Amino acid sequence: MNGIWRWATLLLCNTLAIFVVGCVPDTSSDKPQDRAQATRFLAQATFGPDEININRLMSIGYEAWIDEQFALQPGFTFREFMTRRNAEIKADNPGTATAQAGPAQIIEAFYTRALLDNAQLRARLAFTLSEIFVISLNDEGLAVRAPNKVAGYMDMLDANLNGSYRELLEAVTKSPAMGHYLTYRGNTKEAPTLGHFPDENYAREVMQLFSIGLYELNLDGSNKLDARGKPIETYASNDIKGLAKVFTGWSDYRGAAYAGIADSLCIMDAPACKDPEAGYHPMMAFPAYHSTSEKSFLGITIPAQDPPDPQDSLTKALDRLASHPNTAPFICRQLIQRLVTSNPSPDYVARVAQRFLNTGGNIKDVVKAILLDQEARSQDALINPKQGKLREPILRLTSLLRAFNLSSPTLSVSSSLLDTAGTTRIPYVSIGNTSDANSWGQTPLYAPSVFNFFRPGYVPPQSQLGSAGLVAPELQITNETTVTGYVNAVLDLLANGIGPSSVADTDGRCGAFTPQVQQYILSLDSKVAANKALQDAAVTCQLETIPQRNVTLQLIEQRAMAHDAGTLAQHVADRLLGGTISDGLRQNVISALDTVPVPQPDGTPTNGQAINSALDKRVWTAIAMVAVSPEFLMIK
């Protein structure tokens, strides 16, 4: 088996290899013509193709599927999830004042939505926006003191999918999470005699990353050049200084219960003015702290104000950013990169940017333009070495879990013995932090900086990609350690599952027991006493003291077909590749499976266990080899 994993590691290093199987027909049909086309679209538009969405997409077509997805509402909001999990954690830890929902529950909510929610396109788009308009739980202030602001941020991104880029930009700007992360919450007007000037952090990043970028662009995303053939900068230091004045006089929301607290305390986020609702409401204006002086930036001037009007300043500034000629190509190119291809052609960018302009930046229309464009749907892209993108680690994990049947004890909605009568717990999956380079190498909402996990313009140094003028953003977090770490993470997922361990529920009737309840049951002298304790609580179940990861893949269906190497190889290709697999990869998988012998049955229990063990190894081998192949790692 070690030889197989060495082969898989080497294969993963060739992530930009191109595999062509037979002829590649073109099509302009609104419906996928086969499973491969449906899988390709869903790899771009969801957290991973699954049987339900493949069948639905093939039934109603691309545009109708997008319309249907936009009309769906998430099964829960991040706020609802945090509220319910907070109550559960407090119930699980009676008398512990510090017990509360935190960053771990944000990640629980994220993966529960990504893996199980029907509103897949909305969830994928919210994740996409979170990688452009970045905040991060790596910020201790958000992670430890205000995780509810991150929950509110994700709900804000989802809510604004139905609007325009301009509306989204204002919602991002007023977000308490963004105000904290980019340090303009509590930003106060200039006092030159005291040597005080407004914080420039957000003014810089809202231009550089969230709207217009560093250099002037043509509609197709290419740089405009000056008379010397050099790129033209979009803004200078004076633009930053002028725009910074706009973002003064804003701080966290305070409701009626806090109306009597002095503005001087609230603008500085003092403990006396911490409204529990602040994480879920836009920041509010405190006019006395807003700059009243003239504000000049990007060719416009907001006149001096008397009295100060923070909202008027903000409206004029965001209108300027949203209408800047750079904004449509700059934002659209990044959206294309996150969903379809790292190197969209200039024509592709121009078509989507024109739709942005024609619709006033309507997000749904822009997403349609991206996903339905000829470069996204044409089969020609499958043989174009410039097309496609590397699947980032989070999407590899979710795609693997969605392709097969996952299970988790915390999905069995139940009441804990520590809950009040009649309480129903929220179902969820717990995967945890996977940022370790020796594991998956990435955790959602844990970007190392405002520049995300990787930059949209990243070029691997001394590479053929660089020589060809191509970028590969996701390769910025790919190295020798993460390559082997990914292979090991896939093997661990297949054999053991992922997430924190808990006591196994062997007959499925126990539901979502808390660690405290499990510890209590296992502390009893005997299984009889344990069952008696559960019966007294009107619950009957069987528990084994075998640690079980929270999320596991149930591969009984695959085990049943593992006797035939060719059948299993094609089945795994169907689930992970849409059925299209290169002859070379198919033969490598079959050859590897043939090295795992399956004992002949003799009717004994130990023989049955040996057979199942061998079949499981075959299943794991087939899935692992496909999962580390360029055919899976590249979204084409």
Description:
The chain is mostly helical and 636 residues long. Among the domains are: 1-30 and 562-636, no CATH class; 175-210 and 235-323, no CATH class. Helices cover 47% and strands 6% of the residues. The chain has helices at residues 2-13, 35-45, 51-60, 62-71, 78-92, 103-116, 120-130, 140-145, 147-159, 165-174, 176-181, 201-208, 237-244, 263-266, 310-323, 327-339, 346-358, 363-372, 374-377, 393-403, 464-467, 480-496, 515-523, 527-536, 556-560, 565-577, 583-594, 605-627, 630-633; strands spanning 250-251, 284-285, 295-297, 300-302, 389-390, 405-407, 498-505, 543-554, 634-635. Strands 6-8-7 form a three-stranded antiparallel sheet. Strand 3 and strand 4 form a beta hairpin. Helix 5 packs across helix 6, helix 6 (103-116) packs across helix 20 and helix 26 crosses helix 27 (583-594). It is globular and about 90 Å long. The two termini are 30 Å apart.
What characteristics describe this protein?
9 strands, 636 residues, single chain, disordered N terminus, two-stranded antiparallel sheet, mainly alpha, 29 helices
